[in-house]
Structures are given as C-alpha cells and as structure tokens.
C-alpha cells in the first residue's frame, strides 16, 4: 500500500545564473564582484530566489549600520521598479543585483528613477499619499526596532505630509515624476 503522509522531503533545486556576462552588462559590478555575490546568494538561496526575510538579512550585510534597512523589503532591480515581497513572494538574483547596482553605483538620475519607482506602487507614473504612506510605514517599522527614541506613531504620516508640501507643486494631490525630479534637482 502506498503511504502519503505529507512528510516527503523534496531536494532543493539549485539555481544556475543566466550568465554573469549578461548581468555584468546590466550592472556596474565587475565579473569578480558578481561571482562573489552569486556565491553568497547561492549559499543562502539555492533556488535562485530570495524571500523577504533572507533578502533583508543579505541586504543588511551591505549596510551594517542599518541606515537603509527599511529599503531592503522593497528593493527590485530590472526595470528600476520596486516590489514589497510578502509571504510567498520572492526576488530573483538578477533583480537583486541590478537593484543593488543602482543603489550603490548608479548615477543621480538612476537613483532618482529608482526612488520614484519605489513609491509609485501601482506604476501609474504618480505617487499618491496612500502609496507613500504604505512605504513610509514599512520603513518606519523597520527603523523603529533600532532607533532610540522610537519614532512616534504619527511620524510616517507627518513625513508624507512634509513630502507632499515640497513635491506636489501644482497641489493636485499626486506627485508626478516631473515634479519629483524638479524638486530633487533643486
């Protein structure tokens, strides 16, 4: 008789990169740096994809002071967009490396594009207060664990209001990329 008790362990699928040369062409990392990143990534994520918890731990190794730990949950490369991995959502090695390349070695324009896309959750070309508040709460939640004194509960909303006072130049309740870029460049 066959027995299916659910305790069967499947071997981990080992991930092979699509080609470090291609990745090198899309990042500002050397081949040696990419090989080192890949080795570390493969050890922590043999499937080639990283979940939110592991992603945060890997990212924190690059920024041990915790200055940008809040961004670890929303980093995504490739198109310069952002994703907030939740349960079951993972980030592939290529997106991780491209996003890290922009943050560490990107031009001012690339970093501004990345930052705008971080807050433009639905990718409609505008940042709403709701979108920004969702990201700010995530960042403040992560900062709160290692910040003394801990931020007030109202701090994320206050931050969003301050941002919109500066960035929403025409007062329509949304920040376009043009408004964002113009204000940042000033």
Automatic annotation (TrEMBL):
InterPro entries noted in UniProt: EF-hand-dom_pair, EF_Hand_1_Ca_BS, EF_hand_dom, Recoverin
PROSITE patterns from the UniProt entry: EF_HAND_1, EF_HAND_2
User: In the UniProt record, does the keyword Repeat occur?
Assistant: yes
- Quick check: keyword Thylakoid in the entry? no
- Gene Ontology cellular component annotations, sorted alphabetically: nucleus; voltage-gated potassium channel complex
**What keywords are assigned to this protein?**
Calcium, Metal-binding, Repeat
Give the matching Gene3D superfamilies. EF-hand
Q: Which residues form the EF-hand domain?
A: 107-142, 155-186
Any one Gene Ontology molecular-function term assigned to this protein's record: calcium ion binding
Alphabetical list of Pfam families matching this protein = EF-hand_7
For biological process, the GO terms are: regulation of potassium ion transmembrane transport
The domain of life is Eukaryota
Q: What is this protein called?
A: CSEN protein
The gene coding this protein? Kcnip3
